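dumping this here before i forget
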Amino acid sequence: MKNSFKSLFTKLCTLLLIFSVLQSCSETPDKFFGVAILNTNTISDFGTPRLAKQLNDNTIEYPDIPSSKKNGNEATDIIKNKILYLEKVLKDLNALSANSDDREEIKKQAIALYEFVLPVYKNEYTAYAQLCDTKAPQEQKDKIANSIEQKYNAEFEKRLNSLVALGKEFATENNLNVKWD
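structure:
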């Protein structure tokens, strides 16, 4: 009985040791790059007329095309889904292992970028989407879209470009096959 308990205890300790070693290992460069850098593709249109146009275009109905009939929440749903995705990316970023200076800096800048855009999606873009869904006058929508662009775009571009520059260095150092446009 004592020997079987001792054997079980030894196996359990070994499993815990293996588990803790695996937990402390960092992600592969490819996975780290994907979470920290590639996910920025989802926000590359932030603060641009392109995103505003996309939201507005998703609410357009054509009288002679019955299939274009809208529910009245298309733009809002796009923003809600984007917010959910950004929150997931932020959670994934926080969970990344940063076991080197370059990873730490990339992680720090990526988190800062998402924390910068997320409140804008939750507030200004949500308000803009609601105006699109309710078919508000274009001047009203333009006012919010222009305000977003003027207030946030320059800082966003600066942050994004800095992160992408770090990402390019990281990809080169880790021999990741990445094509930059």
